[in-house]
Records
---
Amino acid sequence: MGDKAADASTAYKLSCTLNGKETEMETAPARKLLSILRDDLELTGTKRSCEIGRCGACMVLIDGKAVNSCLTMAYQCEGKSIDTVEGVSAGGIDPIQQAFLEEGGFQCGYCTPGMIISVKALLDGNPEPNDDEIAEALSGNICRCTGYGGIWRAVRLAAERRRQPS
Amino acid sequence: MGTNAHEQETIQSPLVWHPQSAADAWQLKQNFGADAVYAAGGTLLRTQWESGLAKMPAHLIDVSRINGQEEPIREHESGMTIDAATSLAACRSDALIARKLPLLAEAVKQIAAPSVRQLATLGGNVSSLVGDSLPALLVYDAQLHLFGGAGEHWEELSDWLAATEQALLSSQPASRLLIGITIPMPEGTTDSHAVAPAQEELVSKTKRFGAYYKVGRREAFTPSVVAAAVVGSINSSGVLEHMKLAVGGGQTIPRRLKELEAAFAGSELHAATLQRIYDGVLDVYEPRGDLFASADYRKSTAANLIVTELWKSAAEAVTGGW
């Protein structure tokens, strides 16, 4: 039988690309990606909140798609490319972050990293989203402060700036 | 001395197995029994572990690699097959599903959020027994490709749901592994609820209809209170034909309302018929209520959704109104 068990505590080594750097680490195979990022690697831009995939505060990019890191287990990241909000802003403030700043797309800011990640996944795949597509893309991100008006404006501004020649 | 969260998570982490075939996955499950759980996307499992509804098992059998097909969503002579481990996101963005299985496309669009759908699979949604894709798959007469002790076999989704519900009630859950879902399509036709070509001329003046509805307590990313799917056709005389109804939602295992389908086949669709269908849904559908929505509320919601779709379709099909 060609099966292979990844040992729970010692033998499992996760290999992936994290914020553009090839990374290897020993971890438990079913450990939450959220715990790896925040507790093991101190990448605390990714936020811990509901931990059941409902709020979107822990969103990261996996192979360019927005995914809840609280639902993702270590073994599911094998060979994948993972980007956190730290990676998104590694080269300076990202235009999406700038749009959130200018349009007041945040208040307490706790949901904002997850929002930024979801918007980046949306605009990278669909540079000109309509309102339905924006609503669907952000349906997994909850904000309890803003009432979403500023977030909508920020997404539209970020999309508009991407369309403009630099 | 207590352990910190990291140590606790490491201690509790199951061994993860990565079988490359259904037979190997099945054998692992036989070896470990109740200590092992199949997992593909793992999203439902994770929420059950976090909420304390289920214990993290000692062994996790990752079934995301057991098919090895190049095309997880494929069309063939007798219909379309979707591998069980296909993510809901892949189903949502697939052009073939959008074109040929529009009710399934609509159902998938309304399950969770895009980020969850990247992990969650169609097979997991079906295997949960209460997934919101099920009403759509039921009206498409979906068949399940399963692996069990006697090897591979096929089973009608509606039969499998009923049998699995009975097995759960008798505390004898079957541990068959879901490999794929096939939607049969009549030979020579281009979609799942088309009629066979020989009938095409006879029904050329019919209006075909089909709709999937999900009602929840929020506009988006919400558990269903009711999920319903309806397909059928109405001819130019206003007669109802080929109607299929399926209803579920919440913790109710969905089912086809075949008694109503049979009772109203060939009925002229007018206001009195709609009233009888509405009453019929109230009579035969037995949803599970909870603190948020009673069984009666779910019944009347289901009846309203079905009759609304029939009324809209009939109004478009028949000139002169009612």
Note: Chain A touches chain B at residues 1-9, 12, 27-32, 35, 39-40, 51-54, 56, 59, 62, 65-68, 70-73, 75-76, 118, 121, 135-137, 139-141 (CB under 8 Å).
---
Amino acid sequence: MLEPTIIKDDELEVLLADISVLYGYDFTQYSKASLKRRVNRICLLDKFASFAELRYRLTHYPEYLQRFIEEITVNVTEMFRDPTFYKALREKVFPQLGTYPFIRIWLAGCSTGEEAYSIAILLKEANLYHKSLIYATDLNPGVLETAQKGIYAINQMRQYSENYILSGGREDFSSYYRANYEMVKFNADLREKMIFSTHNLVSDSSFNAFQLVVCRNVLIYFEKELQNKVLRLFDDSLDPLGFLALGAKETLRFSNLEKQYKQLDSEKIWRKLH
Amino acid sequence: MGQIGRLEIELFLIGGSAGSLKVLLDMLPAVRPDLTFPVVLILHRKAGPESMLDILLANHSNMGVIEVEDKTTLQPGTVYLAPADYHLLFEHKSLLSLDCSEKLNYSRPSIDVSFQSAADIFRGNVGAMLLSGANADGAEGLAYIKKSGGLTVAQDPSTAEVAYMPARAIERGAADHILPPGQMASFINNLSVSTN
């Protein structure tokens, strides 16, 4: 079903200004087409008949903010999405990372954690996990709780297992989790080197130096100017010769960083030159 | 050409699912490369790394075919193909964006999502065509475009490999025109401003 349009463009602007002033979350440079759909969607989910009702709830009930942000940001993710990307990580990036005594990876916009577990599995299989740290960050505290638990619906596992095999995985995928009724819980040793933390790409600064920054299907929700700002943040957070991985349809091409990076073949992975 | 009083078409959308590729491959060679608007294709396709659909379409078209990336700019006389596993949205009249939010009608890209987004930006200045398919996706989007004043076309279900999708659109009165594949290219050509 198509959702009716409840929020008009100028109302969206008013709402974003409110949120920015009251709560310090700045969505004004998010891509409007997607954001408008999300705000409309939450009006339907939470039964706001008008912009005024939504605005009232948001401005008078600070506890509603977390839910609002969680619902207007897209938290759809999966394990080993785009298996060829993970194959490239295995074959082209990890052999380089393996030369470091200690590997720091930043997974920006980790959502409910499926990518973090995917990368942990890859690192284990490359025998690098013991000397790695995965910093998994997201704007939403709620999704980080899910990520930390590592509990997912069992009906996804067939797809994830197929993706895993396509990514070059040779183990039995089901050995990485334990099933219990409709859910699976990923093994605790996969979480050993994960650090979960909230981080807002719009407003927070660099917090460490990394050899690999993974941020897939996050920049698509940002307007170009904000994309450039976030890409500079990644650049500031990457060691020389570090790797930057973006989503399958995202690019460095429109940014002023392109000249300082070299793309690896056809995958959306770039290496910082110096 | 009977387009008197119609708003100028600034964008043409084509949505299709099962059975639509053959229609496109037959029709696209006859579409003029100097169209005064871009053509955007929303096709249900399997997410896969080695898709060559853009190349296949380019080989059957006199226009350039671009598989859409994030923030792709629209140019007239060019075909834009929605990538697998993303919804395609319109930021403004010349800028596309992508979104990987939940599937709609079991589909991502969803034809409904893109049709609605286009209608919100282009209002009546959009034409849209719904081809063969086994999914209900697209019928509601086509109706939305019609309601916004856009020009709507459904493939004649009797000519469709899978009639369900265009038939659903026609049932709900979403189609201004019902066309067989053989008439589609000239219909699109005639919407171009440069055509007399």
Note: Chain B has one domain: 11-191.
